[in-house]
Amino acid sequence: MKKLGVKVLFVIGLLIFLFPFVMRTISYFNQTTAIYNYKSETENLSDDELNEQKNHYNNYNEELADENPIVVMGEDDFNIDETQSSYDFLNSDDAIGTLIIPSINVNLPIFDGVTNLNLQKGIAHLDNTSYPTGEKSTHCVLAGHSGLSRAKILDDLDKVKIGDYFQIDYLNTTHNYIVVDIQVVLPEETDSLRIKQGDTLVTLVTCTPKNINSHRLLVTGRLTGEIPQEEQISTLEYIIQFIKLNYIYVILLIIFVICLIVFIKERKKEKKVKNKDNETKENEKEKNEDIKNEKNGNNLNKE
What we know:
The chain is an alpha+beta fold. Helices cover 47% and strands 19% of the residues. It contains six helices and eight strands, in the order H-H-H-E-E-H-E-E-E-E-E-E-H-H. It is elongated, with a radius of gyration of 30 Å. Mean pLDDT is 81; it is low at 84-92.
């Protein structure tokens, strides 16, 4: 019994240790599924349907450029709430694009609107900012969390340097950006997020410092030409990098699976031995009963 208790405690401890990795793996699966669905849907659109959507968002961006409203980064919008389940992730609005940052191994879906769920699933497009169409006089703002326990979003955005590249796929068109500015500001300091006439900008936003979230880290990129081949990252490389970054958890997960298999086999073996012992005891009991009954019968015959 004591031996069994030790094994159970070991399994529970290992599960607690593996919890962040398991949750991040589920999140990674959800993100990958969202990206796949986005690409499948946009690739299946006809040229007329694509042009109709592009015209719609270009018109929106032009109207926005004329107004050039003040961008608001509400503190409540960036609050972390991890109470929603993975089921919610799979039953929510579709992605509208993808963001790739090769230097920090990011490949994430983009969702429309800064909501708690969107920020947990991936990157969220901030309201009253341009959509990333790649046209002039646009400034798209994309937000992502840092420090989530269940998912890795923009945790490493502080490692991005001026001169690094990132890519945005939107409406089946990929646009490349080169980082030209990095700032740390208070949430209400949003002047740098306004549209600059004739310029094509995208700013990536996350909270900083991690788990304190008093400021915002702004990484701004300007539309550029082709990204150098050595700066690009394929889906396979992204998966390999994910495994490398979590190799300790992968090893422990393998150990856990092996231990679980051994534990189940031993339990089955112990149960089999126990059943055999019970069967032997039952046979001995029946045998003793038969001997007792036989003796009683003999005594009655003598009398």
